[in-house]
Amino acid sequence: ASATNTINLPNFSAYGGTLTIAAKAAGSTAAATFRVSVSAVRGNGAGTVVLYEGADTGILPAASNGTGSAWRLDIAADTTNGGIAVTVTGAAATTINWSARFSNAEAVTAS
Hints:
Elements: E1 6-8, E2 13-25, E3 31-42, E4 50-53, E5 56-59, E6 63-65, E7 72-78, E8 83-89, E9 96-108
Antiparallel strand pairs: 1-8, 2-3, 2-9, 3-4, 3-6, 5-7, 7-8
């Protein structure tokens, strides 16, 4: 994970929501959509992030067309950057455009 594929949480926060990802291969009708409920909490510092809903590897698309059915999603706690790491895997030698949205509610406290 890196700062470019992590949903960063502030200290002393909890996030809960739906991660939706749409993906489409250039030059074809191959496409995939992922929808995952994700919940995470962070204490004082990046290393305290815990995902208590949605963490998994090799998540299958909720819907797909063509070779999009073979694309995968990984969701994990990122204890380096302090957030939710989102990693996708498409097909070799294929340009795939990916777009993600995290619709969430959050609670943040002073400690």
